[in-house]
Amino acid sequence: xxxxxxxxxxxxxxxxxxxxxxxxxxxxxxxxxxxxxxxxxxxxxxxxxxxxxxxxxxxxxxxxxxxxxxxxxxxxxxxxxxxxxxxxxxxxxxxxxxxxxxxxxxxxxxxxxxxxxxxxxxxxxxxxxxxxxxxxxxxxxxxxxxxxxxxxxxxxxxxxxxxxxxxxxxxxxxxxxxxxxxxxxxxxxxxxxxxxxxxxxxxxxxxxxxxxxxxxxxxxxxxxxxxxxxxxxxxxxxxxxxxxxxxxxxxxxxxxxxxxxxxxxxxxxxxxxxxxxxxxxxxxxxxxxxxxxxxxxxxxxxxxxxxxxxxxxxxxxxxxxxxxxxxxxxxxxxxxxxxxxxxxxxxxxxxxxxxxxxxxxxxxxxxxxxxxxxxxxxxxxxxxxxxxxxxxxxxxxxxxxxxxxxxxxxxxxxxxxxxxxxxxxxxxxxxxxxxxxxxxxxxxxxxxxxxxxxxxxxxxxxxxxxxxxxx
Length: 471
What we know:
Elements: H1 3-25, H2 31-38, H3 42-45, H4 47-70, H5 72-92, H6 96-124, H7 130-156, H8 163-166, H9 168-182, H10 197-219, H11 225-245, H12 261-291, H13 296-303, H14 305-324, H15 326-346, H16 353-369, H17 372-378, H18 385-419, H19 431-470
Helix pairs in contact: 1-6, 1-7, 1-9, 4-5, 4-6, 4-10, 4-18, 5-6, 5-9, 6-18, 7-12, 7-13, 7-14, 7-17, 10-11, 10-18, 12-13, 12-17, 12-18, 12-19, 14-15, 14-16, 15-16, 15-19, 18-19
Protein name: Transporter, major facilitator family protein
Transmembrane segments: 7-27, 47-66, 78-98, 104-122, 134-155, 161-183, 195-216, 222-244, 265-288, 294-317, 329-347, 353-370, 391-413, 433-461
Keywords: Cell membrane, Membrane, Transmembrane, Transmembrane helix, Transport
């Protein structure tokens, strides 16, 4: 394939990946608007976010396995059309059931796109350009994850929440047409499809039980018998899944891929970084609009500091990773995260906005420099590129879904501590309670980054030690 066509295809796949990741985070800032217009409680409106993330987690591995058998490009292209259709229906929705159904359709398309885009990129680019190509894709995907609140705030300051979804339609159609024209066309053989249905059933049950337990626990109590039963079911399904995958002839996931420490630590550290990023998506819109009383437009502009800096640091990190390795670049990038996290732990409403903008900008630099995609895909062998891309996308979405739940739980736990009673909403008239909850939450976010530093540091140290023993 010609080099020019490679980069056009990269932009086509990345643009669809951008939209599918953006739609996981952009809705957060629109939840109050959706709640008011559809006349539903805030906690029910938040299902619009959680349904999308959880369904993607459930479906990703299935489409990763399917794409390995019938081809990644057909699955990606069909997924693009499904995602566009879901986006259109989301924008046209006039009540919560219709919106949730459309979000489910969006999630179906998004999971098809996310399960295949990494594998397509490693397929069309030579190995010596994987770092650069995946770095650029990583920057686009990460911008989608972190630009949601900022871009959403800007859109909401001009038009209604429906346009958060409508904007996907023309971009998606253009990306699909580019791909249809340039992607190599291949014949699909449906007779060769073999799916490990028992394995998938246990996996889907495990993910569903885990997240239902989390969301139910937030509403009632994590000590509830029903919530504890669901967590127990999730653990039992995990054990059953591993048991099945070790014994079937064509497993859903080749578990031996996790024997590569670089791959496993890459997945875990990427999950931790995406979890940390969702603390900003959940907490910062409230802090800017409710505590500091800024408009949606101003809040959106401030939050855009993260993706704007990310755009520049991610490609640079990809180029550097081609020379010194993605793990080393990512290790140093993790230390950069400590600066914004410390600012968010101590920031007060009386501080200058410049501190907040600086912290968000530095978060964008660190997020872009963290080379999770090249690190994960580079540690997966050629025979694992398809499923590795699916697992990487699963790790990213699990990180976002868990980050959403963790940030929300910690925020309201901190607020409740300060209030002296259980609270699950913004404490109007008590801004200091919210600030305490925010600091409490970001302290945990700092801990997540420290864990990631420890994991990657151990990986680099063990490789250096192994290298010295063999030299």
